[in-house]
Amino acid sequence: MDRTMKNVLIVCDAFPPAFNPRMGYLCKYLLEYGWNPIVITEYSPQNFYNDLAKGINVTRINYYWSKNNTLQKLKYAFVFLAELIMDYKHRAAKKKATVIVEKHGISLVLSSSSCRTYPAIAACQLAHRYNVPFVVDLRDIIEQFPNNEHISKQLPGIASFLNNALATVITKRFIRQRDKVLVKADAVTTVSSWHRETLSQYNKYVDLIFNGFDPDLFYPQTIQNDRFIITYTGRIESIELKDPSLLFAAVVDLSARKLINPETFRIRFYLTNEISKNIISALIQQYSVAEFTDCFDTVQNIELPKILNESSVLLLLTNKSSGAKCPKGIMGTKIFEYLAVEKPILCVRNDEACMEETINSARAGLAAATLKEVEHFIMEKYAEWQQHKYTRQQVNRPFIQQFSRKYQAGQFATLFQSLVNDCRVVHR
Question: Does residue 326 sit within a domain?
Fold first, then answer.
């Protein structure tokens, strides 16, 4: 390895092939900027981003996954309690990382996580032990979710009000631990202007580095199709977060007026889990649009560009962000991959915030607030498809290029180098 190359220890809650494209793509491009990633993460049997794990120095800690379902539940219960009592997962991550750091040496520690505290505490303690800069990357924070969507599991056999009470206790603990770590970080990175503003209350060094698209995979291609296809990819945690009702209502109305038919007009959902499928299935039945819809399992990232490029409209699901119980600042990978293929984007319901602002700045489509807006947009793109058998959006390409994963790896590398040069290491 080049002797000028610096090692960055990335301690993260998930890493490809588990669902964390942000860190996967960062590692893919970071070497080009003089930084060698060494990753400590939690083992998961997920299989989303196989190609991003190749060639990366990754150590995975299996806390509770087992092929035996009963054993896995027992392990999960043990780890859950041990984590509450003694920060078990943090201790295990720090122990495993210490062996690796002693072998390779590091110049900086990066913690990357969703709304949980793990593994930020371990990363902070490692940075302190080796006296190197410490960066916290937060892809999500608890405050963005309206109804405990950050708590993915409930304890079985317990009344819902007790689960809610437990969720409240856990949430307060997560926020308290997170805020203590944020104060000790030399820099914080996050994914939207709303997140940056919120986190700046705890650390004045907060950088905005968006999620994005891989330029090697996502670019516009002209693929003709005999059907007009509206495509959604990803997960749906709840209707409060992502609500397709406006689209389904529009389909009902346009069908009743004989303007569309199920032979040529399709809505396709590529969904990551059973929760998402159950939510969509219930709404499909509620609106009686089953004849217009298809549901599939999610696909590998290398298969996704073709699916997007052969679609006529790409669907984003969100909800209005104003109000105490509304989603805030959610800017996932999906919007940027949509932007990169230059297809018309339909966002329902308009968040009236960062999603709308991005779509408008990119000239990428419509963030819709009314049924009339949705119907007008669909019929406009439907007419274009009828003429050409494909659609294309005349986007603002210079604006979109800032969301390239390669460019964003450069942003991380610039931040890392500035911290190493500055020698401004916060006392922990």
Answer: yes
Residue 152: alpha-carbon gap to chain centroid: 15
The whole-angstrom distance between residue 132's C-alpha and the CA centroid of its chain comes to 28
Tell whether 308 is covered by a domain.
Answer: yes
Measured CA to CA, the distance from residue 358 to residue 377 in angstroms comes to: 18
* CB environment 52-69: b (16+ within 10 A), e (fewer): bbeebebebeebbeeeee
The pTM score is: 0.91
Structural domain of 257: 228-402
Q: For residue 423, how far is the Cα from the chain centroid?
A: 32
Question: What total number of domains does the chain contain?
Answer: 2
Note whether 24 and 88 are same-domain residues. yes
In a domain, 1, yes or no: no
Residues 314 and 412 in one domain: no
235 and 152 co-located in one domain: no
42 token code pair: 């939690």
Query: 285 CB contacts (<8 Å, ≥6 apart)?
Result: none
Q: 159 and 283: one domain?
A: no
Tokens standing for residue 316: 């984003």
d(CA 5, CA 34): 5
**pLDDT tens by residue, 270-298:** 999 999 999 999 999 999 999 999 999 99
Q: Is residue 220 part of a domain?
A: no
Three-state SS string over 115-173 comes to CCCCCHHHHHHHHHHHCCCEEEEECCCHHHCCCCCCCCCCCCCCCHHHHHHHHHHHHHH
- 92-101 per-position pLDDT tens digit: 999 999 999 9
